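During the second half of the funding period, the structural biology subgroup turned its attention to how the target accommodates small molecules. The most pressing case was adenosine-5'-triphosphate, which had performed well in the primary screen but for which no bound structure existed. We therefore specified the complex as follows and requested a full 3D prediction, including the ligand pose.
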Amino acid sequence: MELEIRDVSKTYANGVHALKDINLTISKGMFGLLGPNGAGKSSIMRTIATLQTPDSGKIYFDGQDIFATPAEFRRQLGYLPQDFGVYANASATDMLDYFARLKGIHNAKERKNRINELLELVNLTEHCHKAVDTYSGGMRQRFGIAQVLLTNPKVIIVDEPTAGLDPAERNRFYSILHQLTDSAIVILSTHIVGDVTNLCDDMGILNQGTLLSRGKPDELVASIKHQIWHKSVSRNELKTLRDNYKVISTRIVKGNIQATIQSETAPTASFIQSTADLEDFYFSYVPELAV
Ligand SMILES: Nc1ncnc2c1ncn2[C@@H]1O[C@H](COP(=O)(O)OP(=O)(O)OP(=O)(O)O)[C@@H](O)[C@H]1O
């Protein structure tokens, strides 16, 4: 099972060059697409979902050009966009039944069994008769996943699914997604580094339409293993530091600014070497804005 993205570029009518020559091969398992707001994550997701065509480039699923026979590819696809609408007052069971009919599951018994199985998977059985428009954010996302899974898709795309979820709901959502990775390609877009650390065995970093890095999270972190240094600094020191070193991030720790620097050698004796993590790797490519 393989999705191949070859030389894909997209410029919108307003002149925004949202995707710049993207090349990426994605296999079974969970692929995390990490990037800041406006990086192009939704653009590449919508393109893979065949909701928009690239200006140039191709996408193949198991060797088949997805734009040559989009209807065939869509039968194997499950797409959960950032915002999806639900009908007013409709229960989860009724909505899933409606979508299952639309997706061609005509046998009533088969439909009922599949819906019950999915409600169980996403822990919504006990809420299945409540109106989906009254669900919490997390319940709604879990309902969205059930909807996506109705036809056992081989490629599942979830666009920033954990934005706005509390930690417990986020974990619940992770564990549902994790169960899908044995039998499908799951592509998850997020700007939350922790989502990728916890879930993904393969990942890419997208910024300003360009794929800056890709690989296994552990290996990417190992590549900067001895290069991360911390120091508490004043606002004035930080300015000087930025002129002389690669300051990749800053955070407030107990009321002080802690600067994180990437350097192959110790910057000065006052820096403490720290264990690199995926957030450091991410910031080494997408430096945060100066505070
Ligand atoms: N339909 C569109 N028409 C014009 N510009 C668009 C369109 N969709 C996205 N863009 C622009 O393309 C760029 C990439 O947007 P995209 O939504 O793909 O990024 P993103 O990484 O998903 O961001 P976010 O995390 O904020 O959702 C942005 O500059 C955005 O404003």
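Two results from this model are relevant to the next phase. The mean pLDDT is 92. The chain has ten helices and 14 strands.
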